[in-house]
Amino acid sequence: MRLHRCEGCLAACGRQRRATPLSTVPRTIARTKALQRARRGPYTQTMSKENCIKMETPPTPPDNEAPPMPWFGMDIGGTLTKLVYFEPRETNRRELDKETEVLKNIRRYLTRNSAYGKTGRRDVHLQLARSKGMADLVNTIYATGGGAYKFEEDFIKEVNMRLSKMDELDALIAGVLFVDCMNAQECYYWAPPDEQAVHTHVTDSPPYSEAALSLYVRKPFDFSSPYPFLLVNIGSGVSVLVVNAPDDYYRVSGTSLGGGTFLGLCCLLTGCSSFEEAIALAASGDNTTVDKLVRDIYGGDYARFGLPGDLVASSFGQMCSAERRAKVSRADLARATVVTITNNIGSIARLCASNEGIERVVFCGNFLRVNPLSMKLLSYAMSYWSRGALKALFLEHEGYFGAVGCLLHLDSKTHRRKQAEAATADR
Ligand SMILES: Nc1ncnc2c1ncn2[C@@H]1O[C@H](COP(=O)(O)OP(=O)(O)O)[C@@H](O)[C@H]1O
Ligand SMILES: CC(C)(COP(=O)(O)O)[C@@H](O)C(=O)NCCC(=O)O
User: Fold this and answer.
1) What is a single cellular component term in the Gene Ontology annotation (predicted)?
2) Hey, which of 33, 201, 281, 384 has its CA 20 to 30 A from 308?
3) ipTM over 0.90
4) 234 in the same domain as 341
């Protein structure tokens, strides 16, 4: 059973204290057995394929020890706090009796509003079906992300609440695998209608221009056989993970030039005050007035090494000229910032993928939120520079996977406990 988005269980708030088969892609990358062996990672991870399959069976009612609703998973990152809230459809009599007035109020507050305080927003469009099978989850506040460690004492002092902490990369992968299992539309990619056009560079317009990128359309991708894949999480900073199996992954690389860098630089350069404003500015800008292109240096292509004239040779390379600085617009600066950060992440991801012999590169994290420009740039760059061997993939729930992974952690804990109890009873 695959669930589609409809009615709700996922809520979110911002923080300020608070199917195309891969076989259509040429396999130009050699994958050796040695590489596969080398991919054994040091981490264990809580989500298993069994858990995923279990979600397809009918729900079991919560046991007597299940803590009362509401159930949360929280990811306190470097920029945003993501909160997911689970509300089972199959609330039974016993559970309703247990629900205190305070909890009822919390539930009402969460489910009847779409904005919370000054900065909290509910991403109504990302709500998943009130999924069957999650009903045997139990939870208190499960938290991940750096803030779960940094603010742990504050939670105890201020609200007398304990955080049960989970590693953010464990949670991220668990969340990605689970949400993809539950939502057939989760994974997608961007390509022009004629997909070959990307890596043969046939359009007249420069590849990074709005004219070229506007041709790209979103297409569904069947991610049911995902392994191995590279997971690139673009949050405040960037983590790159090699995922070989649900319980086998490792962090292969990262960069400090991520979503936080984009927003910070954009605020500095353009005076904008929100991510949405920065992205809207970038959408109407032209980075070629800011960046130095290959043709600005060569007068055309640098053909010997396959560098087209309209490729960025030097990001912000024009800005050493006072005359050009005087002419450049805020929108151009915002676009150059997106292009710089995105291309750098794309290059790192591409190098990691070829080193590891991996063809599918999945990008997630809130930097991609309302940001089709970066997704299209990544799609173009991955495909063009690998001559079609690498595929950039994206996920509908962009930045919520860590928080979802927290809820699942609780599920796996419950199961481990039940297994231990069963084993003791058998003795
Ligand atoms: N409403 C927003 N406010 C601030 N940053 C946002 C917003 N929406 C998207 N972003 C982008 O997402 C990045 C944070 O991504 P996220 O995956 O939540 O990472 P983290 O866990 O580090 O907070 C920001 O650095 C910014 O580039
Ligand atoms: C430290 C982090 C894992 C924190 O995650 P985030 O809150 O940015 O999502 C991440 O910012 C990161 O991997 N930074 C890059 C560090 C580096 O490899 O240079």
Assistant:
1) cytosol
2) 281
3) yes
4) yes
